[in-house]
Input
Amino acid sequence: MIWRFHLSLLVALVQVSTIAALTSGQDFPALKALKDAWENVPANWVGADPCGDGWDGVSCTNNRIVSITLASTGLSGQLTSDIGGLSELLILDLSYNKGLTGSLPSFENLKKLTSLILVGCGFSGPIPPSVGSLQKLVFLSLNSNNFIGGIPPSIGHLSNLYWLDLADNKLSGTIPVSNATSPGLDMLVGTKHFHFGNNQLSGEIPSQLFSSNMTLIHVLFENNQLTGRIPSTLGLVRSLEVLRLDKNALNGSVSANFSNLTRVQELFLANNRLTGPLPDLSGLNVLSYVDVSNNSFDATDIPPWFSSLQSLNSLIMDKTQIQGQLPVSLFSLSQLQIVSLKNNRINGTLNIGADYSRQLQLIDLQNNFVDAFTQRAGYNIQIVLVGNPICEEGTRDAYCSITQQSFNNSYSTPAENCVPPLCASDQISSPKCKCAYPYTGTLVFRAPSFSFGNSSVYNSLEQKLMVTFQSRSLPVDSVFLSNPTKNLDNYLELSLQVFPSGQDYFNRSGISGIGFILSNQTFKPPREFGPFYFIGNSYAFFPGLSADRSHKSLNNKVIIGAAVGGAVIVLLLLIAGVYAFRHRRRAEMATQKSDPFASWEKNKDSGGVPQIKGAKCFSFEELQKSTNNFSEANEIGGGGYGKVYRGTLPNGQLVAVKRARQGSIHGGQEFKSEIELLSRVHHKNVVSLEGFCFEQGEQLLVYEYIANGTLRDSLSGKIGIRLDWTRRLRIALGAAKGVQYLHDLANPPIIHRDIKSNNILLDDRLNAKVTDFGLSKPMDESQKGHVTTQVKGTMGYLDPEYYMTQQLTEKSDVYSFGVLLLELITARTPIERGRYIVREVKVAMDVSKDMYGLQDILDPIIASSMPERSAEKFVDLSLRCVHESGYNRPTMSEVVKELENIMALCGLNPNAESASSSASYGVNRGYDHPYSNESLVSYSAGYLPTRLEPK
Ligand SMILES: *[C@@H]1O[C@H](CO)[C@@H](O)[C@H](O)[C@H]1NC(C)=O
Ligand SMILES: *[C@@H]1O[C@H](CO)[C@@H](O)[C@H](O)[C@H]1NC(C)=O
Output
C-alpha cells in the first residue's frame, strides 16, 4: 500500500508539472489523443511536453507542433479526427506503417498543412473531400493504400499542389474536370505530377483535363480501365517528360500530336486497343523508352524515325503490325539496349552492322519473317529469331532457341575494398564491412528509361542517395542496392538497405528522417530512373523496443520515483526470487542427470523428445571437455549462428561441434526438427550427425569431422589444396549425388535451400559432403512438389523464380547447384565486385568458338587442362541448371547422369570415387591416393557456413 501511495503522489506531481510545460495547451491534448489511439509510439512519448521533451518524430516552432514524421516506426491504429487540433501542423508523414488502418478523418482545420504523406499504410475508405480545403498543400501522397471511391473533385482547389500521387489504390470512377458548379483536376495548372496508376479508374480521359497552361511533367495513368481515345489536347502539354497510358482499354486512333512533345523521355501506350496509323514519333530527340506493344495499329512499313531517335534505349513494339526489313542504322543508335519486335512482319535479312551500339543486349524478333542473319564476330547480344523462316530447318544455332533468355539485370552494391566480417545472425555487413541493423525497403521506379541497368547507373543512384542523406545530416554510413527486377507493370524494383553510422542501429529520428526524404521526394534519383516511390519496412531494432511495444507502459518518471520509494520491497522480493530460482534450478539439474531429454520437456515450445536414430545425446560437460572448454585453438569456423569447434571424443574420434551463439538459439521446436531431419539422412556425400546437446540453455550439434574444410576455401586457394579438373569433376559428382539423395531417397524428401560452396565440405580424400541443414525443408506428398515459404537462402545462389513466387521446389536447389558448377570452373564467387557469375558467363559465351570463348572467365588453374568437349558439356549443364524457369531445369538425377557422362568423356571412371570415399568411414581398401602429396595439407580449416537470410 506504500506502493499505491507513491504512485498516486507521482501522478499528481506529473500533472502539476504540465502547467510548466512549453508545448501549447492546445496541441498537447490533440497529440495525446492520437497517441492513445496508436500502438508502438516512440519510447520517449511520455509526459505532457512533446516540444520541451523532444518527442521523437515531433518538431515544434514557438511551442506549436509543426511536423509529425513517423515513417516505418511500426505504428498501428487509426488516424483519428484529433489530428484536426494541431492547427499549426505543416507536415504529416506517417508513411510505411501498414498497421495504420481505417478511414481518414476530415482535415479541414489543418489550414497550414503543406505535406500530407501517407504512403504504404493500410488506410481504406474514400479520400475525404475535405483535403480540397488544405489550400497550402504542396505534396499529397496517398499512394499504396486501399482507398476506394472516386478522386474528389475538390482537389482541383489545391492551387499550390506540386505532387499528386494516388497510385496503387482501388479508386474508381472518372477523372474529374471542372464545370460551372464543381472544381476539377484541369484547374491544377501548376501541378507537375499526376500519378494515378494501378487503380480502377474508368471512362474517357476528359479532353478538358489537358491544356497549354499545364506544366505537368509526369502523367502516369497506367493499369486502369480508361476507355475512349487519347485526347488530342495531350499534345498541348509541352512540358511532359513521362507518359504512361498502358494497360487500359483506350481505343481509336491516336490524334495527339506527339511531335510537339519534344521533352518526352518515356512513352508507354502498350496493351490498349489503339487503331489507325502508328503514332509519329519523329523529332522526339530525348525519347529513350518506347513501348507501344499489343495494339491494333494499321499495317505500317518501318517508319523513318526508327533510326533517327538519338536517345533511344529501348524500342518495344511487339504485335504492332509493322513490316519490312530492319534498317542497319537502327542498331547504331549509341544508347540502344533492347529491340523487341515480336509478332510482326519483319522480313529480309537481320544485319546489325559493324557499328552497332555497344550497349545492345537483346534483339528479340520472335515470330517474324526474317530469312537471313549477317553474323558478326565477337558480339555479346542475345538474339532471338525463333519462329522465323531462318530457324525453320531445324537449325541448332543459339539464336533459334529461347532457352537462353537470361536473368541479366543482376546487380548488388560491391564491398568497398574490405573483407565482409561474419556478423551476428540478425546483423548484416555493410558495403564498408561493418555489422549493423540496416533500414530496409524497396525503391520502385515507375518508368525507368533503360531496360538493363549497368553498374555505373546503379553507382550513380547510390552516390545520389548518400549525398542526399549527408546533406540532411542523417547518420548514414552507406547504402546497399540489390536485386533489380522489372515487375509485370514494367516498374523497376530495387531493394535498398541503409546502414547507420556511429552505432549499429538507427534511432527513431534517424528512421523517420530517412523515411521522409524518400516519401516526400526530397531525394531526386538520377534522371534515367524517372519517377519513383519507396516502400519502407518497419524498423525492428530501435533501442529499448521491448519497452515501447506496449504504449500503455508506465510513465518513466513514475517508474523511477516508484523504484526509489519501493526499493526496500523490491530488494526483499529479489532476494526471495533468487532463492526460489536457485532452489528450482538445483532440482532441475538433478532431474537432468537422470534424463537426458529433461531439458526438452521443460522448454515450453519444444514439444517432446526428438525421434532420433543413431544420434547421441551428449552432456554439455562432455562437449566442453572434448573441445578443451571451447578454446580458441579449437575454433575451426563460425557464422551468424555461432562458432564451430574441433573436438576429440574419449574414444579418440574427431568431431566438429557447432555451438549456437546466445541470441541465435532457435526455438526448441526448430532445433528438434533439425536434429530429427539430420538423424534421418545417411549418405556418403552428406555430412552425418553424430549427436547433439540441449542443456543449460545451450544448443550444440556434433558432426563427423571433415578434414579439408569447405569447397569455397579450396577454390579460393586459401588453404593450399590444388583442385585440378579431375578433382573438380569428382567433387561436382559427389555433391550432386548428395543433393540427389536428399531429393529422391530421403524420406520424406528434403529441399536443402542453401546449396553453395560454403556448404560443401571436402574430406581427407576430397570427397564432397553436403552440410548445413539449417534452412532445409522436408517435403511431404501432400505438398505436390512445392512449399510456399518465406524466401531464404544465400544471395547469388538464390533461384529467381523462388525469389519471385516464394514457391520452393527441388528445382530451387538445382538452380543453386548450377551456380556452384559455374563456381567450380571459374573459381569466382557468385557475386564478385557486383558482377553476377550467371550473367557473366551467359554474356561472354559464344557457342561458335572453342571452349565457347570462355577462356578468360575460366579458372586459369584448370583452363589449360580441360578437354574442350567436356568443358563445353559442363558449361551446358550449368546453364541448364540456372535456367530461369524451374520447369526447364534438369532434375538432380539427370545432373548426376550428365556428370557421369562428362567424366566418361574424360576417360575417368565415375564409380571409382565410391571406393575412395569408403576411406572416410575408416576403411582403407588400398585405393590409390587421389591426390599428390604436395597438396596433402594437414592444416584443417573446418567449415565456415556463413549465410545471408534476405527478408
Ligand atoms: C518485305 O515486306 C515488304 C512489305 O510487306 C515487301 O514489300 C518486301 O518485298 C519484302 N521483302 C522481302 C525481302 O521479302
Ligand atoms: C551504362 O549505361 C549508361 C546509360 O544507360 C551509359 O551511358 C554508360 O555508357 C553505360 N556504362 C557502361 C560501362 O556500359
User: Anything to note?
Assistant: Residues 428-536 form a domain with the Alpha-Beta Plaits fold (CATH 3.30.70.1440). Residues 567-594 form the longest helix (28 residues). Residues 418 and 427 are 17 Å apart (CA to CA).
